[in-house]
């Protein structure tokens, strides 16, 4: 099966997608990937959701909240950033803004006076470094082919740097069995204690909440849509009971079960 | 008093800072602003925290969690984006990534084939449009001086587009009185139901939680620092009691009261 992910070749998204699909195609944004799967133009997509240093990939969360897709699996990919250029004589460092952020301490220490410019992907920065000797890229060391050299490895600020990806498919493929489930909740109302009320149905049933992310609803400041990850499948009674309670609380809004799924961890 | 904020002249940060300070100086990043105030090089700073469409400004949150500063006031600024260029004959649109994101629907509809390139600030995009006829900027219409024209106004995707800023000062200026308070909590531990336990002390005392944002602790995936805003001042008994309970829960981590403060809303 083919999976659509963030290109070009050599991105961490490409590494994640290669682990779950026979072949990989590339799109230019998370929104484009979710749209292609929601509309049926592609059967599988792989989108980054969260990095252990930089936090949520908000474009992915917003696209998942808007799109009619299911989460089928999560993939945890270790991030190993290398500094890649034709030689040490570079004048600027380019990479995806998250990779620049993840290497901030390294760059501050070793290259405090070098300009940092965000580009669309880590792989795009490698292309730019290949074309232009004045540019260094930050990307996985496997990208240092042809005239490019790896100037330094493991330049990310912390060893525990991993990115979490979702494998997505059409809503019809949604599963109820899995060690984790993801819900998106738009309460449609706001009152004191609301957030607590939304979490209690899980806590009351000893369901571990592994992540809660608020995203703006777009209606007004202070009005949020919540992305909730729990360690339980929707095929368990306790999860269905909790969901029913949350649906009652959000009766003026909506609750979407994006899917129940298992985790795959890639080696370095 | 002089306030340091994100430059150059003409940014929305500049508009916010002008409302609270006699004069304004400019820095290049939120981290630089917080560092300058924490180290005493500047007595006041103004940093964007949250936009009603694009969500949190994560660099500001992370800098506040790391820095020794106090939040003295919040300022709500309406965002009115205009498309600004020398003429209609532009080939690319540049602006701060949040402004590009906030105008996505407009650009998709009217300029689907025009490249969009993120730059450091809305004001920087105006400088670029002034230098180069092939570039259009997205910024407040007041920036369209000299050869620049306002091609379209109110291009933001929603009318309710506002950005929330914090006015920051040295920790010694921290106040306990105000209609709102902000805390940063690193629990230092993780167990099922932890997040609920951190919210209950407020809910039990009818203190309205207006915002909860998780940011990665950097230690490992799934381990978070929480930014919590509540509608109560620390000079109230109920707030101090709630804080004491949260400090007990986070005894392996830390809790920081960034300050209690009031809200100022700017007109359009």
Automatic annotation (TrEMBL), chains A, B:
Gene Ontology biological process terms, A to Z: L-phenylalanine biosynthetic process
Domain Prephenate dehydratase residues, every copy: 2-170
Pfam families: ACT, PDT
Pathway of action: Amino-acid biosynthesis
Keywords: Amino-acid biosynthesis, Aromatic amino acid biosynthesis, Lyase, Phenylalanine biosynthesis
GO CC term, one of those recorded: cytoplasm
PANTHER family xref list: PREPHENATE DEHYDRATASE P PROTEIN, PREPHENATE DEHYDRATASE-RELATED
Protein name from the UniProt record: Prephenate dehydratase
Organism, as annotated: Halococcoides cellulosivorans
